[in-house]
Known about the structure:
It comes from Trinickia soli. The protein has 338 residues and is of the alpha/beta class.
Amino acid sequence: MNAVTLHEAPLVRQDSMAPSKLRVRVQSVSYLAEDINAFEFVSVDSDTLPAFTPGSHIDVHLPQGLIRQYSLCNPSTERHRYVIAVLRDPLGRGGSVAMHDVLRAGQIVTVSAPRNHFALSNSATRHVFIAGGIGITPLMSMVAEVQRRGEAFHLHYCARTPQRTAFTGALCGLVASGLASIHYDNGDPGKGLDLKATLQSRPDGAHLYYCGPAGLMDAIEAASGHWPRDAVHCERFSASGSPARTKGDDPDTPFEVELARSKKRLTVHPGETIVDALKLHGIEVETSCCEGYCGTCMTRYLSGDPLHRDSVLDEDDREEFIMICCSRAKSASIVLDL
Ligand code: FES
């Protein structure tokens, strides 16, 4: 049986007062599909975990010092557990292999409180979800929520083969009722879901949400270019194939960073990131992807004009925050809330 079931339960809100790090026990590890396992975490210190909203992810601190982000895939109405699903990728950066090969039921690990850069719209009258492979994870939680709200939706799930498709058991009712469709391409990106036809017209009030590998993300971005930007939401788990810095940015120029709380000032040179410069001055900050898509290094800025190069923050977020692993400053200096 799959670790995640879709069901109805009362709504809970994300807990902004939650501690930033939580001790959790691996309650179970279960097989979902070829190379995909679900990991269920429960709190060591309490009966409940901080509430989360659909689309949230947590950082998992792995025993070897790795920190990796995984989307929560269980319904956000559940307070007693967090569930993630992980694809073992031997060509990745080591996190998914460690999750599969090292993490066992009963172990205690540290996770962050949930963060959400991929929230559901409250004003949409219809939701269109497109998942590619393991990108289904945040969408499982979102689909559970729109079902609970009784809102119109359709889930398109793109996968290679049935053997490599997680959650088919949990989704079979939606597929049977025409609310979800699974598109297999057998490794040929030319087959499977016709994105152009799917996204050609936007139903009134519809919002689009998508998550998957970089190639699919770039293809959906291109096929949805005529949708209003505020009706399109995505979450990447790898850097875009067309990184933000190639979109007409000037070459790197040096700038000053002022740290408002520690009253320090430092220079970020061309070819260096703000995180690099902070480390050179003995200031450690938490990072993970270092490519602007995971959100771990998100930092508030107090003044200055950032040159955003991430793929996480929306226009509103960018008025307040900067991803210091990849973004720079257009102004001669920028003041960070550090
Ligand atoms: S470390 Fe991932 S966005 Fe900066």
